[in-house]
Design brief:
Blueprint: H1 6-32, H2 40-56, H3 61-73, H4 83-91, H5 106-109, H6 111-129
Amino acid sequence: MQPLSKLQKFFYQTFANLVFIVHLGLVLLVVFGWLIPALFYFFLGALVATFLSEIFLSYCFLSRMEFNLRKKIDPAKIYDKSCIVHYTRVLFGLPPRLASVTPVGFFKKNSFKFVLLTLFVVSISYRVLV
């Protein structure tokens, strides 16, 4: 494979950073959007889209897109499956998790879906009661 030019690296880096910023905004909207009445319907849409992505794809397409762009710049770099886990580990100076060969239980495998579903129920309840 031919090495990337500085211009190509710049575009990949810029686009990966843009995907990261959009992803961070989406995460903040999903976590805190229910607190802001003006954003409630955007929050619900983002929450449902995230839930459907997790059900049908089993991953976040924004994480995969960002990591693929960053791997074009540095193919040796190792990324976690989850963007949140990856950047949390980077923040605390921890190495990436290695793929586990031990089977994962049902609740651990689907924990993010349960968190999203709980957030949906709580936010709808909050909206109805307030």
